[in-house]
Amino acid sequence: MPKPVRAVMIGCGGMARHHIRLMLKQWDTTRLAVVCEPSPENYAATAAIFKEAGRKPPPNQPDLDRLLKDYAGRLDAAFIITPHAYHHDQTIACLEAGLDVLLEKPMVMNAAEAKSLIKTRDHTGKLLVVAFQGSLSPQIRTAVTMLRSGDLGPILNISAMVWQNWGPLTAGTWRQQPELSGGGFLFDTGAHMLNTVSDLAGEDFEEVAAWLDHHGRPVDTCATVMGRLASGALVTMNACGEAIPSCHSDIRVFCAQAILRTGIWGEQMGESLAIQRRGRRRFQTIKLPKSLGVWEQFLAVRSGQMPNPSPPEIGLRMTRLWDAIKASAAQNGAPVKCVNGLNRFA
Length: 346
Description:
The chain has helices spanning 14-23, 40-52, 64-70, 87-96, 111-124, 133-136, 138-148, 166-170, 178-181, 190-201, 294-302, 312-330, and strands at residues 5-10, 30-36, 77-80, 100-103, 128-130, 155-164, 205-213, 222-229, 234-240, 247-255, 258-262, 274-277, 284-285, 336-337. The chain is an alpha/beta fold. Strands 13-12-11-10-6-9-8-7-14 form a nine-stranded mixed beta sheet. A five-stranded parallel beta sheet has the order 2-1-3-4-5, sandwiched between helices. A hairpin with a 2-residue loop joins β10 and β11 (258-262). The longest helix has 19 residues, at 312-330. The protein is globular and about 55 Å long. Mean pLDDT is 94; it is low at 341-346.
């Protein structure tokens, strides 16, 4: 049996602790050797999770540069879950230190940072995977295979929605500080929608029109985006971050021969993958293998069991889409051409 991957968790906030709980269920493949967390409260909460699982908590070294020096040769991979503005520099440091990296979404703040990560990935030869639950999930990978097979016919329209009580839930946190977050609900939770829709579409956006509403907050919390793909198919995306306490999503892909239904995260619960074929009156659920989340899929990519479905190129794709959305919203929804599009995604 291969030796467990020796990992560092960089950032131990609420989302990181969610992933740690799943990683502790993969003890045969993973050892969290050390964490990097500046907040004593976050580290204490993380240590408690290990104790509950009957495992010894890893040490904490809040200084990443010192951690990488102290643990040189003793780590294989890093999982980075920190405020968006820190992603670029922390990823560069880990790649240069010889670590493979699983990086929380959104990958970076802008296209220049995305290109920088791609360049560093290339010259270090290390693996970089963006932790989009959708693209890494069996559900979305199955949906993409079905859409590319030609059996469902060409895509005509895509309709997507995501909603959450994000505005009140994140008030006073870094997520509503533009200099750290890079955007609001659409760039945070909504990033999963932007990415999964693009993944399902498998082609570039040629034109978008968008409206962003702040509802009195420092960042946008509600958004509507309309787009036209290179093939001519039309897309609508709606994000409401001021909903009643809830967190859910829905995507419908309308093809010539069927309607495909899924969610933005590739959910195991909630909006499962389902299809309604021509001539059928109801959706039929598609059975899928269970998943322990993005770390499990990252290890599968790292070991060569599957190709990387979420490389840094998708981070570049998303920053370009986000730039077009912001440009349109700044012009009160005027259509904006998407430039420098990437190649079609299979």
